[in-house]
Amino acid sequence: MNQSLATPVGTTLDRFIKKKQNDFAFATGELSQLLRDIALAGKIIHREVNRAGLLNIGGAYGAENVQGEEQQKLDVIANIRFIRALKNGGEVCAIVSEEDEEILDVKNPDGRYIVAMDPLDGSSNIDVNVSIGTIFSIFRRVSPVGGPITEEDVLQKGSEQVAAGYLLYGSSTMMVYTTGRGVNGFTYDPSLGEFFLSHPSIQIPKDGKIFSINEGSYKSFEPHVKEYIEACKEKNFTARYIGSLVADFHRNLLKGGIYIYPATDKSPNGKLRLNYECNALALICEQAGGKATDGKNRILNIQPETLHQRVPFYVGSTNMVDKAGQ
Ligand SMILES: O=P(O)(O)OC[C@H]1O[C@](O)(COP(=O)(O)O)[C@@H](O)[C@@H]1O
Ligand SMILES: [Mg+2]
Ligand SMILES: [Mg+2]
């Protein structure tokens, strides 16, 4: 594209969303508004994350979520903040969240979108001041507007996502998203209260030298995963594992690499959740020129059967994902 016509780096997220809205025929602006609602919730979580240590909201909440995992106070806060922002925005009719067992029907008769989210990813890292994130997928409602929300609405394949993204609360807070036309990243300037385009048209290198996997469960990995790890070591590749999926994914997206959460004895279907974590990152990765599978099948083609379904996850540079799979 002629560089003088390209959107300049530094454009605000608001302005960028508005400009892109015109790319869609018959766009009503609802999806644009929904993305703005998410960005607003992201700003609020940014604020909470940054003062977590001061406000004593960094620790355990004292309950378990539907996955049987100990909830952190910030998991609960982030869930509430996102739900509130999405409800108030008015474009959403239902929300499904990693933190809630059931579908949340937000009783908005005009809402045409469904959001699936992991409101706080990497929550075991909160207490130790390490990067965490939020992951979201946006789907169009398929059941008639005005009627009850159905399973069909919330169990759509990843290929049906109309947009997906994540917020990364790292050394800077970023929002990275796609509407199926490439991937763009925005960095938050807290002094101005705005996200600015900082990473236009992100492309993941086809090959990389970083592998990210929790080797603590090495003994129970399938043979092809063990072989792949050994091959990475043979080539003196770099091992990097933060333990926050968003942060590990983001690094590999920019530098080239692979993230694997394979099947293990403890988690025979892997640990990560198809609807809240894998679908969104799979779409972003593909849109950036990378690949995402469960070791065999394209993530975006998997028909979810249950809300909280888990899948093995191989995501990153295409050539690496091809080599690591079965
Ligand atoms: O500690 P493990 O088993 O390596 O798991 C790490 C993975 O679990 C997760 O923390 C799961 O996310 P939640 O914090 O949202 O439950 C991922 O972010 C991360 O990649
Ligand atoms: Mg998570
Ligand atoms: Mg979470």
UniProtKB/TrEMBL annotation:
PANTHER family: FRUCTOSE-1,6-BISPHOSPHATASE-RELATED, SEDOHEPTULOSE-1,7-BISPHOSPHATASE, CHLOROPLASTIC. Binds 2 magnesium ions per subunit. Keywords: Carbohydrate metabolism, Cytoplasm, Hydrolase, Magnesium, Metal-binding. It catalyses: beta-D-fructose 1,6-bisphosphate + H2O = beta-D-fructose 6-phosphate + phosphate. Belongs to the FBPase class 1 family. GO terms for cellular component: cytosol. Its EC number is 3.1.3.11. Substrate binds at residues 121-124, 214, 241, 271. GO terms for molecular function: fructose 1,6-bisphosphate 1-phosphatase activity; magnesium ion binding. Homotetramer. Its main location: cytoplasm. Mg(2+) 1 binds at residues 98, 118, 120. Mg(2+) 2 binds at residues 118, 121, 277. The keyword Thylakoid does not apply. Its cofactor is Mg(2+). Residues 204-324 form the Fructose-1-6-bisphosphatase class 1 C-terminal domain. It is found in: Cytoplasm. Pathway: Carbohydrate biosynthesis. One of its GO terms (biological process) is fructose 6-phosphate metabolic process. Residues 12-200 form the Fructose-1-6-bisphosphatase class I N-terminal domain. This is Fructose-1,6-bisphosphatase class 1.
